[in-house]
Automatic annotation (TrEMBL), chain A:
The keyword Ligase applies. It catalyses: L-aspartyl-tRNA(Asn) + L-glutamine + ATP + H2O = L-asparaginyl-tRNA(Asn) + L-glutamate + ADP + phosphate + 2 H(+); L-glutamyl-tRNA(Gln) + L-glutamine + ATP + H2O = L-glutaminyl-tRNA(Gln) + L-glutamate + ADP + phosphate + H(+). HAMAP family: GatB. It comes from Hydrogenophaga aromaticivorans. Residues 335-483 form the Asn/Gln amidotransferase domain. The keyword Transferase applies. Its EC number is 6.3.5.-. The gene is gatB. This is Aspartyl/glutamyl-tRNA(Asn/Gln) amidotransferase subunit B. It comes from the Bacteria.
TrEMBL record, chain B:
It comes from Hydrogenophaga aromaticivorans. It catalyses: L-glutamyl-tRNA(Gln) + L-glutamine + ATP + H2O = L-glutaminyl-tRNA(Gln) + L-glutamate + ADP + phosphate + H(+). Its EC number is 6.3.5.7. PANTHER family: GLUTAMYL-TRNA(GLN) AMIDOTRANSFERASE SUBUNIT A, TRANSAMIDASE. Residues 27-476 form the Amidase domain. The gene is gatA. GO terms for biological process: translation. Belongs to the amidase family. GatA subfamily. This is Glutamyl-tRNA(Gln) amidotransferase subunit A. Allows the formation of correctly charged Gln-tRNA(Gln) through the transamidation of misacylated Glu-tRNA(Gln) in organisms which lack glutaminyl-tRNA synthetase. The reaction takes place in the presence of glutamine and ATP through an activated gamma-phospho-Glu-tRNA(Gln).
TrEMBL record, chain C:
The lineage of its organism: Bacteria, Pseudomonadati, Pseudomonadota, Betaproteobacteria, Burkholderiales. It catalyses: L-aspartyl-tRNA(Asn) + L-glutamine + ATP + H2O = L-asparaginyl-tRNA(Asn) + L-glutamate + ADP + phosphate + 2 H(+); L-glutamyl-tRNA(Gln) + L-glutamine + ATP + H2O = L-glutaminyl-tRNA(Gln) + L-glutamate + ADP + phosphate + H(+). It comes from Hydrogenophaga aromaticivorans. NCBIfam families: gatC. HAMAP family: GatC. This is Aspartyl/glutamyl-tRNA(Asn/Gln) amidotransferase subunit C. Keywords: ATP-binding, Ligase, Nucleotide-binding, Protein biosynthesis, Transferase. The gene is gatC. Pfam families: GatC (PF02686). Heterotrimer of A, B and C subunits. PANTHER family: GLUTAMYL-TRNA(GLN) AMIDOTRANSFERASE SUBUNIT C, MITOCHONDRIAL.
């Protein structure tokens, strides 16, 4: 349940529920053996079953069911021992059979919740259900002398439709929910999460009401295919609905599309009689029965989930919650962190470097952590050298540059080659200090006269003379002694 | 051999195997004969080159020493089965000239057994009808009286087998579409347990009822075909039963356990549902059925009265469930991917409506309307759900009955074949005539029609035998014993 | 209960069928004729009776068979589109779809 005291917009409470269509990362379609790969030539991946050719029948893909079980386990849902496929009947050119095979009365995944942080406030959104269904094809609206072209390659791609309670109270919370769900489905490997290609499509049901009033009439914003648009679309929709109500107009239930160019939502042309889908159990498909031991098997192979892992990183490595959450954005980053932390024994330093130096470089090159050119072990080796005082933090950044560009591979070799080793031999350092003091007698006088500033200036000169190799702490101490 | 059209499957297979004739000769002879009798309206399509190529391949297998009960035997398929090389229309204008890129599982299994496809057989549009007068192409005539219907929906299959145009054919039975035309044309046909034969490649009418089966002159020939047609289709049909294929000929000619050859059916309890023998059934039909039953007594069977109390309810229950499923199954015919598209239309919605109204005949449109209505918002519970509940009660009634008997027997239809056009304007009258076959289909039980003599106007009458689930073997054994003692199944209509 | 012409119109539209005035009249008569024989269902007490969707479920439990997740269907576009009313560049053509 959303714990948040609702933040009002012009005295209205915003109420948001989500329906997310996640394409499941299977090899074959949900009811046929055609491949699911994206971007093939039109209708080359639509087999007889996908095209609903006369005489064809559906045969269920085990992989799709297993993905549904994984989601259910990840979100603490009940996985139905028996669920039923139903036909949703309506005519549309991208729907080859004239009905969509979906689940209606008894879905495979029931209940559950998604928890996440909004700022530092923990939020929980309750799930109603997640059901298996088949995706439709695509209508291409580019001109074909006044006609539309239908590509059915996508038809039959397995989907999980994940439906929440209307628990969200702001566009920010909605986006945070969507990001957490996105993180979860990609983390457990059931969806590639590619929003541009439509692998993760969000519909937001938005309504507003005076606090404590009945739920307002909702409008559904369809196909929000980026987190940025999601926030814009919901904010626009909320403003629009409040204006309507303030102007004395009632909200009509509708399905709307967000136009990124105008930043506005507009009502879709409503499909006639879309309301009467004539659902009934699909006689081509007996009930889906999921044995408990199958669920146990899947559970045994589930990866540690991001939230659990973050908690463990706080516990075992003493990381701050913020660091722990940040380095568990993806399995790859989490693995990169943990290997580095283990190998270096410097957990906090590791998270600092990954959130800072590493992420900054990746962002500049628009790369993903999976493509990081410096291995976790190499980074760990570098962090060790900082820790044991061989290089200063600044010098370490120069080493990182060389490792990143490929100019060097071995940390110590780079330090050597670039001569970045800190001077830890006190004899040599004393000599430099003596020279600096001799060359700057006036400054020494000022210090002795009580001008503390002069000390920092002297330290700076010493560091400069050592070409940055002096260990700053050591330089400090020695200088102090000599100035006594 | 110029009389080989009189041979049944077994005799023809033997003649081919013994080189008395060849598959090619048989195919050519039967093709010529089929064309000679095209006025019956039994065939919708031929592909002579393909047929002869298949026959040559069969002859080659025989030359190589192969043997098989169907090897080289010409058969024909109801046009509900999709086939490569022959157009598949389902008797509808909607699918005129439709070319399937694959064969139905039943078709490919028969082909694998060496059977040769002569052509595609006429049927009621999308298998919806009981007189074969709902075909968009031509009505089929009953060879016993060409002014009468052959029954439906597998009327082309029945007429072709009865008229000796083909030794055996495939049919499909949703509410009686194998049993009733078999009865009307004096041949033998069996609808196996629902899920015994794959539905893959059958143009769907009512998914929870459709079932393929063989139609031939004898129970023995039906057993031979069914052995090749049945079996699980794990890869293609989720409703095909996970029961291994059987040799349905294994019990033929054997006396029942503990029985003597003289009285081979001793100990067999035949249940007679009182509801099947009431005033609703024409006296001539009842007379033939009772005569057949006393024949069974001579063979050692005992007759026991049973009750199937919801027999009358099976009519509304069936005519709600089947049209509901059909209305959804037929939504794919929208003029987009295949099938008829109207020449003129204003927009997308108009294209759908015009294409479907032009492509579907009146009975199909009627059933789509009924099915759409009973599934629509606010009516689902009162009609579809209620019908599915009563369906369970009907199925339980049969299980109750089978505690008192081994086989259930009765008429297949209340009358003999009626005159073409007699009922075409009265859909409800057609529905009522299905009363004895619908409950078996709703329960998914195996049922068959066995020639049992003649009734009014000297038209054939069939005896219906219904067994419990998976008892096809026993049913065929029971029918075969009868056919060993009688010759009704060997009678040919005048002029054929 | 008895259907009306407006019911016929609504159902025909749902089913994407176009019926002329006279066809609608005939359809109305025939459907009402049918629903007269449906009346008798109301007399049956079905409380607590589970609907029977798959016939053999009467005697034993039926459950959905699952196939391994393997993509094995080759591209068969040409054969699959052989009977298509209108195709261009591999796409099925339909009157403009407006959303």
């Amino acid at each position: 349940m959303s714990s948040s005291k609702s933040l009002l917009v012009h005295g209205y409470e915003v109420v948001i529920g989500f329906e997310t269509h996640a394409q499941l990362a299977t090899q074959s379609k949900i009811f046929s053996r055609a491949p699911t790969a994206f971007g093939a030539e039109p209708n080359t991946q639509a087999c007889a079953v996908d095209l609903a050719l006369p005489g064809t029948l559906p045969v269920m893909n085990r992989g799709a069911v297993e993905h549904a079980i994984r989601l259910g386990l990840a979100l603490g849902s009940h996985i139905a021992e028996q669920s039923v496929f139903a036909r949703k009947n309506y005519f549309y050119p991208d729907l080859p059979k004239g009905y969509q095979i979906s689940q209606f009365e008894i879905p495979v995944v029931q209940g559950g919740e998604v928890s996440f942080f909004l700022g530092d406030e923990k939020k929980t959104v309750r799930l109603v259900r997640a059901h298996l269904e088949e995706d439709a094809g695509k209508s291409l609206h580019e001109e074909f002398h006044g006609m539309s072209g239908i590509d059915l390659n996508r038809a039959g791609t397995p989907l999980l439709e994940i439906v929440t309670e209307p628990d969200m109270r702001s566009s920010a919370e909605a986006v945070a929910y969507a990001k957490e769900l996105h993180k979860t489905v990609t983390w457990i490997g059931i969806c590639d999460g590619n929003m541009q290609e439509g692998s993760f499509r969000c519909d937001a049901n938005v309504s507003v009401r005076k606090p404590g009033a009945e739920l307002g009439t909702r409008r559904e914003i369809k196909n929000l295919n980026s987190f940025k648009f999601m926030q814009q679309a919901i904010d626009y929709e909320v403003r629009w609905q409040i204006e309507q109500i303030e102007d004395g107009h009632a909200i009509q239930q509708a399905t709307v599309l967000f136009d990124p160019d105008t930043g506005e939502t507009r009502a879709m042309r409503t499909k006639e009689d879309a309301a009467d889908y004539r659902y009934f159990p699909d006689p081509d498909l007996p009930p889906l029965v999921i044995a408990r031991d199958w669920v146990e098997q899947v559970k045994a192979n589930m990866p540690e989930l991001p939230r659990q892992m973050a908690e463990r990183l706080v516990r075992d490595y003493g990381l701050p919650e913020y660091d722990a959450t940040t380095v568990t954005q993806s399995p790859a980053m989490a693995a990169y962190f943990e290997t580095t932390a283990k190998a270096s024994g410097q957990a906090k330093m590791a998270s600092n470097w990954i959130m800072g130096e590493v992420s900054r470089r990746l962002n500049n090159e628009e790369k993903d952590i999976a493509q990081v050119p410096v291995s976790a072990d190499t980074l760990a080796a570098l962090l060790k050298r900082i820790a044991d005082g061989t290089v200063s933090n600044n010098a370490a950044k120069q080493v990182m540059d060389a490792l990143w560009s490929g100019e060097g591979q071995d940390v110590d070799a780079v330090i050597e080659a670039k001569g970045l080793k800190q001077m830890n031999d006190s004899g040599a350092l004393e000599k430099i200090i003596d020279e600096v003091m001799a060359a700057n007698a006036p400054m020494v006088e000022q210090f002795r006269a009580g001008k503390d500033k002069a000390f920092n200036a002297l330290v700076g000169l010493v560091m400069k003379a050592s070409k940055g190799k002096a260990n700053p702490q050591q330089a400090n101490d020695l200088l102090k002694q000599k100035l006594q | 051999m110029n009389e080989l059209h009189h041979l049944g499957v077994a005799e023809l297979a033997a003649a081919i195997a013994d080189k008395k004739t060849s598959s090619v000769e048989a195919a050519q002879h039967l093709l010529a004969r089929a064309k000679e009798h095209q006025n019956l309206g039994a065939y919708l399509a031929f592909n002579e080159d393909l047929t002869l190529a298949q026959a040559q391949a069969a002859d080659a297998r025989i030359a190589a020493g192969e043997r098989g009960p169907l090897l080289g035997v010409p058969l024909a398929h109801k046009d509900i089965f999709v086939t490569q090389g022959f157009p598949t229309t389902a008797g509808s204008k909607m699918l005129a000239g439709y070319q399937s890129p694959f064969d139905a599982t039943v078709v490919s299994q028969l082909a694998a057994a060496g059977a040769v496809t002569l052509g595609k057989l006429n049927c009621d549009e999308f298998a919806m009808g009981s007189g074969n007068d709902n075909s968009a192409y031509a009505p089929v005539h009953n060879p016993w009286d060409t002014a009468r219907v052959p029954g439906g929906s597998s009327g082309g299959s029945a007429a072709a087998v009865a008229a000796r145009l083909v030794p055996a054919a495939t049919g499909t039975d949703t509410g009686g579409s194998i049993r009733q035309p078999a009865s009307f044309t004096g041949i033998t046909g069996i609808k196996p347990t629902y899920g015994r034969c794959s539905r893959y490649g059958m143009v769907a009418f009512a998914s929870s009822l459709d079932q393929a089966g063989p139609m031939a002159r004898s129970a023995a020939d039906c057993a031979t075909l069914l052995s090749a047609m049945a079996g699980p289709d794990i890869d293609r049909d989720s409703t095909s039963l996970d029961h291994p294929a059987e040799d349905y000929t294994r019990l033929l000619g054997l006396a029942r356990e503990g029985a003597m050859a003289a009285m081979p059916l001793k100990g067999l309890r035949i249940g007679l549902p009182t509801e099947f023998f009431g005033a609703g059934c024409a006296p001539d039909v009842l007379a033939a059925v009772r005569a057949a039953l006393s024949e069974y007594e001579k063979l050692g069977a005992t007759l026991v009265d049973i009750s199937l109390p919801r027999t009358e309810l099976s009519i509304p229950v069936y005519y709600i469930i089947a049209p509901a499923e059909a209305s959804s199954n037929l939504s794919r015919f929208d003029g987009v991917k295949f099938g008829h598209r109207a020449a003129k239309f204003d927009d997308l919605a108009d294209m759908y409506k015009k294409s479907r109204s032009e492509g579907f005949g009146p009975e199909v449109q009627r059933r789509i309307m009924i099915g759409t209505y009973v599934l629509s918002h606010g009516y689902y519970d009162a009609y579809y759900l209620k019908a599915q509940q009563i369906r369970r009660l009907i199925a339980q009634d049969f299980q109750q009955a089978f505690t008192q008997c081994d086989v259930i027997a009765g008429p297949v239809a209340p009358t003999v074949a009626w005159k073409i056009g007699e009922k075409s304007d009265d859909p409800v009258a057609n529905y009522l005539a299905d009363i004895y076959t619908l409950s078996t289909s709703l329960a998914g039980l195996p049922g068959m029609s066995v020639p049992a003599g003649f009734g009014a106007a000297n038209m054939p009458v069939g005896l219906q035998l219904v067994g419990n689930y998976f008892k096809e073997g026993e049913l065929l054994q029971t029918a075969h014993a009868f056919q060993q003692a009688t010759d009704w199944h060997t009678r040919a209509p005048q002029g054929f | 209960m008895s259907l009306t012409l407006s019911d016929i119109g609504r159902i025909a539209n749902l089913a994407r069928l176009e019926l002329s005035g006279t066809q609608s009249e005939r359809m109305l008569g025939q459907l009402n004729g049918f629903f007269d024989i449906v009346e008798q269902m109301n007399a049956v007490d079905t409380t607590g009776v589970e609907p029977l969707a798959h016939p053999t479920a009467v005697i034993d439990h039926v459950s959905l068979r699952l196939r391994p997740d393997v993509a094995s269907e080759p591209n068969n576009r040409e054969a699959n589109q052989k009977s298509a009313p209108a195709v261009e560049r591999g796409l099925f053509l339909v009157p403009k779809v407006i959303e």
